[in-house]
Here is the input.
Amino acid sequence: MKYDKNSYKQVVNEYTPKNKMLRNCVYAFIFGGAICLLGEVIKNIFMNNFGTPEQDASTISSVVLIAITALLTGLGWFDKLSKIAGAGTAVPITGFANAVVSPALEFKREGFILGTASNIFKLAGPVLLFGYFASFIVGILSLMFK
Amino acid sequence: MKKIGNQTFQIKDDVFVRDTFTIAGKKEGEGPIGNCFDIIVDDDLWGEDSWEKCELKFQKEAAKSLMQKNNLMEKDIDLLIAGDLLNQITSSSFAARDLQLPYIGVYGACSTMALSMGLGALMIDGGFASNVICVTSSHFCSAERQYRLPLEMGGQRHMSAQWTVTGSSAVWLSNGGFGPKIKNVTFGKITDLGVKDANNMGAAMAPAAYDSLSQHIADTKIKYDLIVTGDLGTVGKSIVNKMFNEENNSIEDIYDDCGTIIFDLEKQDVHAGGSGCGCSATVFGGFLYKKLLNKEINKLLFTSTGALHSPTATLQGESIPGIAHCVGIEM
Here is the structure.
């Protein structure tokens, strides 16, 4: 064969279809924006109608978005939405919720403890680890510069 | 010596491909060759409680139905050669548990159908067996969860990614009877040109396909009516065409790929095409075998292609070893 690893790499690049970057960015902007708008609407409903303080209303808004995502994931609709929205659903808290619920569902068949419980953070694990680590660093910094 | 050229085994005695039985999933049934399959299963669990159990049921039912259709008893079958994509080839071994036939489990990733047919033909030609059943399967859901991400995890698939075929086909090889005959078998060499992208299997396997095909053609010097590869998809297929064109030995007019035959690439949203052990198996069992019987094609070079990687190896930065096995069949 006349190809080696380097020359074949060029052939692969030439023949591999490119992902539709511009279209994906536009959809991600629209869907991601819509989800954040929905979050704001939920927050305002709680603040204006139930007199919830702003910080609590923000938390409630996140919880509601997580609940909606979990429901849509369970119904098998979220992945269909994500196929169009891409980063639009992955970046907001909906992406994190989906990353926890989808393995939980998938590993149910291997049992509750060794299946679901062992694998539930399979995808979200890195987010949790680096989240904890970042908060640890920020905590130390805030102690130092108090 | 029954070996010709560098790498090809010539089958001297009659080895007939006597019959096939093919079961496919819903999406495959809706595809362009959907009407060729014996059974189409609409439910991705087929009444079982996991995808893995469903996949083994595909294999078991394909083999059983093939035997029933031809009034074959267990004692008539000398050997069952089977394989699939799952770890420890559980679909095959668990199906064989119920079939109660002497069993050889093989793993060749998506190349398993040609691998098992080739081995079966050698067994018969060697005089060790009279009747062999070869069966392979894959299931979109069980493959996704093993090789990629949980099914309900949202995201966008790469344009070069392929769609694992849900399906199984059982093929009955025999030393007596009628039908198309297996004439030449070429087992491929592992070919790896450094592709590491598990979302671009077609590109990873194309050099192996080119290597085996050109070796087989050089060894046998047969002019085939149709050459098909297993699951290179659009990317791999165009690379194979390019490689043959560069050697001034274009096969473009007689070459196709099972991954592009089984799905309507535009309408069914499968990106680069179908893949999996079930891809070349169902296309051969359902579609190509009937073309041979009807004498629409007389000389078929059936070449299944496999990417012999694992998720662990990919994470460790290994490139993807490709393989292709050729089975030359003549009516």
